[in-house]
Amino acid sequence: MLEMKNINKSYPIQNGGVETVLKNINFTFEAGDFAVILGPSGSGKSTLLNIISGLDNDYEGEVLLSGKPLSKKMLDDYHKNTIGFIFQSFNLVPHMSILENVKMPLYLDKSLSNEARNQRAQSLLDKVGLGPFSKKKPNQLSGGQKQRVAIARALANNPAILFADEPTGALDSKTAHEIMTLLKELAADGKTVIIVTHEETYLNEATKILRLKDGVLDARATDALIKNKKIPVLNEQKKTKSTLSIWAILKLGFKNFMNRKLRNILVAFGTSIGIIAILIALGLGNGVNRVVADLFNNAYSPNQLTAFFRAEGTSGPPRPTTPLTAKEIEKLEAMYVKEHITETYQTSSVSGIKFEYKGHLLEKVPPASAQEAVLSAKRYEQYSIDEGYLLAGHMFSKSEEGILLPSEAAKAILNLDNSDELTKGNTKGLVGEKITIVASSRNSQAGTVKIDTQISGVLNPESEGMSQGFLMSQPSYDKLLTTGSLTKDIYTVDGFATSPDEVEPLIEKYREDPAFKNYQITNGVAFLDMITQFTTIIVYLIAFIAGLSLIVAGVMIAVVLYIGVVERTKEIGVLRAIGYKKKHIRYLFISEALYIMIASNILSAGIAIGLSLLANPIIQNQIGFSQMIHISLVNIAVTLGITLTLGILFALYPASKGAKLDPTEALRYE
């Protein structure tokens, strides 16, 4: 039973006055009523319908449902469980099939499976005579067929009360008769049918007639009421809360996304530009860190310590740039002895080395640093083909002349374009060949000094240690120094602890020792950590700058969704009328923003990975390092998470705007 008690409704007008639309309305509707509300335009018919249907709650008086006042808190569940709406202009969602239109109220019951929803919607379409048309879109139907779909949608949740606002106003007389006959049949089945109309054709068949004029109600029951008075409410559904599952939100959001797919994909593409830049920056950081890690792991043993002089105030990364004096060498040697490190080496190097092969200068090979191989044979055991450090040849012995040829020099000798083309097969022929070392010398009239030595092995570019330069045997190194009258400059004093666990405490100890404030005592791991931190800062700074473009993209998404709110105003009104809560409207718009961001990330990942596949061979050809841009799944996942969060934030305003629309105003929107 639905009862109106002392309903009054007024609107404020200019000059501070009010216009009364409804005056002291009292009336009761019962199960099986086929009630007709009549009146001229402006008499308050639609206003009264909005009040008793719960769309308008700004009035005086009470609406009672089964004796209980209809509160604001229960309106959404009232729309879902108790009432159904049939509109004059049908208000079907144009981009959905008629089956999906009928299913819209059924998504609010998350206990139903998708199959159950389909079966329920199909049975209702069968009931209104549109079963074979379930896959058609609304624009493929006639006016009468559209109204039948609207009726089927209104019946989806098996409501006890049906409200019809001018249901035949847009139909021809034949179709109008068919629709009214269908509504009468529903009343005969126990539904309460309340029709707002200005037509008096069906008054003889109404159980109750309500005439409105100037906001005053003149109501009466007819003889038909006696016939229908004892009709029970049939097949009443179990009342459930108006809830929308995450799956339903995502499904409906996807349909909305696809309905405007071209516009949304263009926005996604615009958004992807910033994401691509972020992914490339992160991928480059991954590649640089990997290359640096490989270089240092190859150059340093985990229990190796390196000590060198570092003048106070020196900027830049810690590296040996100044030769050690005899006193400094003595001090560092004493430090190792104090720490019970007995295996120590004084390392010397000559920078700016060029190569000649068979009388031709290898001009494309950048200058290298020749380092004297002073470590014990045990420390060079990894330099073998089996360990992957060499492509061909072997590590020279302490007494023989030779060098381990850098891969760049091997590439130039073999006239290859890419270091990846170096193989065991094509480098094997270089082993044992003579090569000329060219170094600068102030004591030479020509300004350079040349010595011949042999190629003992060829370094693998994947395992080559850049910080180590290339190794030269002691006999060849001495020959270079003697021939060029070069001084043997010692840059570092290296020591090997018995265990890697001893290294970090020792480094920390001397970092705080004032007596060693002008010295750097470190190892490969410390170098690596420092360079990795530096690289990470640079990468994140680049990523942040690139990420600023996402703000612009977020504004684009907000604008597109706001336009969507305007375009779908009437649709929002319909959703609110059939039981969708404000939060459901918000979720639908937010889900659309998420789909835009997901599409943007898919585009970004594909384009960024494609760019890395194109750029990596070029980078390798230029500087010799492979996979310098390495975009990981973690990078993609993190970027997705950040951009989805941004999408939600920028969708909040338009989503809230749509959720706050007044249902009655939204339904009147054109």
What would you note in describing this structure?
The protein has 670 residues and is α/β, with parallel strands linked by helices. The chain has 3 domains: 241 residues, Rossmann fold, CATH 3.40.50; 188 residues, no CATH class; 193 residues, no CATH class. The chain has 19 helices and 21 strands. Strands 11, 12, 13, 14, 15, 16, 17, 18, 19, 20 and 21 form an 11-stranded mixed β-sheet that branches. A 6-stranded mixed β-sheet has the order 6-7-8-3-9-10, sandwiched between helices. A hairpin with a 2-residue loop joins strand 9 and strand 10. Helix 5 runs parallel beside helix 6. About 2% of the residues have low confidence.
User: Which oligomeric form is depicted?
Assistant: single chain
Q: Give the proportion of residues in helices.
A: 40-55%
Report on the biggest sheet. Answer: 11 strands, mixed
**Which second-level CATH architecture of the largest domain applies?**
3-Layer(aba) Sandwich
Beta strands, count: 21
Q: What gyration radius follows from the Cα positions, in whole Å?
A: 42 Å
- Strand share of the residues? 15-25%
Annotation field: number of helices:
19
Distance between the termini: 34 Å
Pfam family, one: FtsX
Subcellular location: Cell inner membrane
Transmembrane segments: 265-285, 537-566, 587-609, 629-653
InterPro entries: AAA+_ATPase, ABC3_permease_C, ABC_transporter-like_ATP-bd, ABC_transporter-like_CS, ABC_transpr_LolD-like, MacB-like_ATP-bd, MacB_PCD, P-loop_NTPase
